[in-house]
């Protein structure tokens, strides 16, 4: 399957703009920029992040500046970074945006042979062109004692240009020849003589450089040159010149050569100083890019989309939703200031037991739907969403609040459950689109609570390799109708009790969402619970696999169940950790 960058949700405008120009190669676009009648601009970038920022700002091309790349490495612009280190950085830059990149290739990093190898490697990495300057290796930046720097022999430099042009495979790859005569204190005639020789040797454009604060010599050169080949300039020193002057002089491309690395340095200096002096982040937080903005620039959203597309079901991220909006009937004395899910059980809130059990099964994306006293829910390791209407709505309304979190295989769980670890493992291992845990033990069936009884296609034969069992319906009966309910159960025997755990596969999730959406249109939606959803799924043709357990879990629906859950939790403690020593408030459960 081929994944188009633009086909992924979250691809930035930068990616989209790039993919729309898919027919114009990067090298083709750079060549167009050099040849176009308009004045064009290249923006300096020095790593993947700055390349992306240049792209998002709207530039059509990038100058991979030698000064900026060496500076971001923390070394001097004297060929201290090796050429392969530069090329490695170019690869990140080319990946971060689809803009054409013109590499500031210094002197070509050696002689004609180094130039040949450089061009081959640049083409392999999708770089659109290289600019080489007529100095000697190792070069120094033009603004550092430029006049003391020896120029290359013209013949030797022409050979280097020709070697590059002969090596390129892509006809649009550009070699720009940079004339340093004016920097080194030579005459205008020498600059023009060199430029002409380089043009004849095959250069696609001439970069004429000047260190003056006025554009005079550049304008003289341009007039004398008379558009024999595209002219490129770097107005770092004569920056105050109105851009229209360059337009009128017939310049093809202006390079803004070092402004992103300088901007970054200024911002980093100021922020580092502020944090160091104030020993707090509070003064800088609002003045710097948010962490979310960094994620966006890294295209983190695309990763999430690709993960959904490519990770197999078994290793896909799994999520869990815990329905924990209720206070808990019959538990009022324990839940004056916290929801049921925060009741301490053997020293830990019920929710912690659940979260730990999920984490053991590699489920780290955990959404808890709170309601009653939601502010008292410990949000460590979970995402809390709140059903604001918890007081007058039921479980399905809470589940609907968490729908956004449902994107991959999901376990939906009541918030008042404790179970042995194998129970969740079996559920997660199920290959079915829907699976539920049903307790077939007598306590499960004849528990004094009266909801969530399961009618299944077969009894629990407690054999290891039974045929798959499917859920037929979940039944509840209010206490007042208990007898009638038991009578009904005799004719239509119940196989156990659904314990409140449901697993839904990626595929099942689509169905669940559509069934839930249909139920949301019902007038009685606010009163509906998860069993109603399970019944609606069955009615819609969903096969819900039943995984039987025989005890080994506890619900917490009233005081008596709460005490039994505490005992159960103590039994689950690791050997050697007695109930009394396992945690500071162990043993306080009944008084909590
Ligand atoms: C660079 O950006 O590295 C250049 C331009 O070569 S300049 O620094 O002006 O020489
Ligand atoms: Mg340079």
What's the helix and strand layout?
Blueprint: H1 13-20, H2 26-35, E1 40-45, H3 48-57, E2 62-64, H4 66-73, H5 83-96, E3 101-104, H6 112-124, E4 129-133, H7 154-167, E5 174-179, H8 188-200, E6 205-208, H9 216-225, E7 231-233, H10 243-248, E8 253-256, H11 259-278, H12 291-297, H13 300-310, E9 318-324, E10 344-345, E11 348-349, H14 350-360, E12 363-370, E13 383-386, H15 395-401, E14 410-414, E15 417-419, H16 421-429, E16 434-439, H17 442-446, E17 453-456, E18 469-475, H18 482-491, E19 496-504, H19 506-520, H20 530-539, E20 544-549, E21 553-555, H21 559-572
Parallel strand pairs: 1-2, 1-8, 2-3, 3-4, 4-5, 5-6, 6-7, 7-8, 9-12, 9-14, 12-13, 16-20
Antiparallel strand pairs: 10-11, 14-19, 15-21, 16-19, 17-18, 17-19, 18-20
Summarize this entry quickly:
Residues about 1-10, about 20-25 and about 580-590 have low confidence and may be disordered.
Q: In words, what does this structure look like?
A:
With 592 residues, the chain is an alpha/beta fold. The chain has 21 helices and 21 strands. The strands form 4 sheets. An 8-stranded parallel β-barrel has the order 1-2-3-4-5-6-7-8, surrounded by 9 helices. A 5-stranded mixed beta barrel has the order 16-19-17-18-20. The chain has a two-stranded antiparallel ribbon with strand order 10-11. Helix 3 crosses helix 5 (83-96), helix 6 packs parallel to helix 7 and helix 7 runs parallel beside helix 8. The longest helix has 20 residues, at 259-278. The chain is elongated, with a radius of gyration of 35 Å.
């Amino acid at each position: 399957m081929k994944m188009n960058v633009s086909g992924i949700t979250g691809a930035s405008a930068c990616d989209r703009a790039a993919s729309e120009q898919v027919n114009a190669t990067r090298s083709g676009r750079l060549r167009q920029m050099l040849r176009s009648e308009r004045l064009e601009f290249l923006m300096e970038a020095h790593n993947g992040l700055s390349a992306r920022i240049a792209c998002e700002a709207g530039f059509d091309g990038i100058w991979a500046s030698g000064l900026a790349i060496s500076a971001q490495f923390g070394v001097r612009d004297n060929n201290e970074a090796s050429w392969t280190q530069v090329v490695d950085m170019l690869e990140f830059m080319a990946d971060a945006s689809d803009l054409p990149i013109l590499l500031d290739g210094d002197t070509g990093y050696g002689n004609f042979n180094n130039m040949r190898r450089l061009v081959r490697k640049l083409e392999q990495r999708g770089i659109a062109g290289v600019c080489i300057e007529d100095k000697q290796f190792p070069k120094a930046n033009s603004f550092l004692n430029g006049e003391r720097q020896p120029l290359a022999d013209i013949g030797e430099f022409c050979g280097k240009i020709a070697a590059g042009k002969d090596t390129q495979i892509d006809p649009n790859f550009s070699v720009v020849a940079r004339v340093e005569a004016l920097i080194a204190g030579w005459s205008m005639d020498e600059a023009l003589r060199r430029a002409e020789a380089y043009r004849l040797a095959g250069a696609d454009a001439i970069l004429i450089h000047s260190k003056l604060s006025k554009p005079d010599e550049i304008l003289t050169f341009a007039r004398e040159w008379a558009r024999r080949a595209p002219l490129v300039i770097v107005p770092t020193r004569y920056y105050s010149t109105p851009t229209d002057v360059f337009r009128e002089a017939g310049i093809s491309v202006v390079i803004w050569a070092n402004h992103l690395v300088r901007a970054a340095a200024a911002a980093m200096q100021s922020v580092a100083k502020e944090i160091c002096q104030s020993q707090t982040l509070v003064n800088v937080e609002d003045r710097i890019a948010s962490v979310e903005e960094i994620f966006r620039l890294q295209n983190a959203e695309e990763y999430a989309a690709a993960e959904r597309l490519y990770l197999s079901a078994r290793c896909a991220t799994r999520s869990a939703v815990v329905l924990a909006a209720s206070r808990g009937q019959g538990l009022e004395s324990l839940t004056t200031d916290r929801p049921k899910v925060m009741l301490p059980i053997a020293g830990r809130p019920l929710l912690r037991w659940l979260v730990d059990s999920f984490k053991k099964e590699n489920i780290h994306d955990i959404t808890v739907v709170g309601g009653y006293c939601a502010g008292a829910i410990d949000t460590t390791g979970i995402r809390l969403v709140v059903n604001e209407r918890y007081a007058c709505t039921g479980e399905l309304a809470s589940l609907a609040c968490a729908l956004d979190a449902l994107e991959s295989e999901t376990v939906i769980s009541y918030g008042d459950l404790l179970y042995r670890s194998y129970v969740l493992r079996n559920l997660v291992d199920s290959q079915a689109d829907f699976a539920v845990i049903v307790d077939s033990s007598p306590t499960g069936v004849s528990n004094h609570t009266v909801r969530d009884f399961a009618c299944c296609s077969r009894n629990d034969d407690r054999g290891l390799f039974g045929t798959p069992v499917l859920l037929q319906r979940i039944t509840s009966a209010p206490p007042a109708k208990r007898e009638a309910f038991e009578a009904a159960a005799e004719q239509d025997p119940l196989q156990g009790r659904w314990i409140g755990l449901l697993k839904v596969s990626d595929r099942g999730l689509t169905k669940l969402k559509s069934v839930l959406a249909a139920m949301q249109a019902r007038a009685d939606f606010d009163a509906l619970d998860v069993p109603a959803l399970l019944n609606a799924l069955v009615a819609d043709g969903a096969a819900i696999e039943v995984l039987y357990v025989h005890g080994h879990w506890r619900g917490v629906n009233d005081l008596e169940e709460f005490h039994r859950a505490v005992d159960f939790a103590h039994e689950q403690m690791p050997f050697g950790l007695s109930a009394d020593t396992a945690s500071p408030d162990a043993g306080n459960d009944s008084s909590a």
